[in-house]
Write a structure and sequence with these properties.
Layout (H helix, E strand, L loop, with lengths): L1 H4 L3 H23 L6 H58 L4 H28 L2
Length: 129
């Protein structure tokens, strides 16, 4: 569980919440006496089951939208940090092109750029579904 949901604890919380809600429904149904004809009870159960399925799907979509929103915000923050560091290194580079610090920062910027590119490609693939 930690490996799968480490980056998104909200998702596991939604899953646990849905499981607990289903457990409460089952316990409530088991403790309630059956009223009315059997057909009416079965029909109500089918409608209730469909409603729960729809609620579960809506919850999953909301969770997915929240995760996507978090991913977009993260990418925006990473892009802003990259832009700031890039502009800073450009101004420093005009004064001293051979500095070890500048070379180290350029390597860090390249790694950030690679990360940004990878995450954009991954998010594009996710959004295309």
């Amino acid at each position: 569980l930690q490996g799968k949901y480490h980056g998104n604890p909200m998702h596991i919380a939604v899953i646990i919440s849905n499981c607990l809600r289903e457990e409460r429904r089952i316990l409530a149904a088991a403790s309630m006496p059956v009223q009315g004809p059997l057909e009416k009870s079965l029909q109500s159960s089918v409608v209730s089951e469909r409603q729960r399925n729809v609620e579960h799907k809506v919850s999953a979509i909301k969770n997915s939208a929240q995760m996507t929103d978090q991913d977009v915000k993260y990418l925006e923050d990473l892009q802003e940090e990259f832009d700031f560091r890039y502009k800073t290194i450009q101004s420093l580079e005009q004064n001293d092109k051979n500095s070890a610090l500048i070379k180290q920062e350029m390597l860090a910027l390249q790694a950030m750029l690679n990360t940004l590119d990878y995450k954009r490609k991954v998010s594009d693939n996710v959004l295309s579904f």
